[in-house]
Amino acid sequence: MTEPQTHDTHPEIVKRLTRPEGHPKSVIAMIKSGKPCLEIAQQLPAVEKAIVNAKRTLIQDHLDHCHEETVGALPRDKRQSIDGFKTITKHL
C-alpha cells in the first residue's frame, strides 16, 4: 500500500474541483427544462476549464514534489528536460 501524498496545492485542487461540482447539475437541469442549446453550451466551458486547471495543477505539483523526492536535486544541465516537460504539461 502506498503512503498518502499531501501537497500544499491539494486544497487548491479541491477548491477548483468543488467550484464546478454543482455546475453540471445546473446544466442538466437546464437541459431537462428545455433551455436553449446556446445557453447550455455557454455554461459548459466553465466546467471544462475548472477541471483542466485542476489537472494542470496536479501534474505540476507532482513534477515539483514527487519526482524531486525520487530523483533528488538535479544539476542545471540535467534539469532542462524536466523543466521542458513541465512547460509542455501546461498545454494539456
Describe the overall structure.
The protein is 74% helix and 0% strand. It is elongated. The protein has one domain (10-89): Methane Monooxygenase Hydroxylase, Chain G, domain 1 (Up-down Bundle). It has helices spanning 10-18, 23-32, 37-71, 76-89. Helix 2 runs antiparallel to helix 3 (37-71). It is built from four helices and no strands.
Any idea of the CATH class? Mainly Alpha
Whole-number total of structural domains: 1
Order of helices and strands: HHHH
CATH superfamily caption: Metal-sensitive repressor, helix protomer
Offer a quick outline of the entry:
With 92 residues, this protein is mostly helical. Helix content is 74%, strand content 0%. The model has no long low-confidence stretch (mean pLDDT 80).
Topology:
Elements: H1 10-18, H2 23-32, H3 37-71, H4 76-89
Features:
74% helix, mainly alpha, Methane Monooxygenase Hydroxylase, Chain G, domain 1, 4 helices
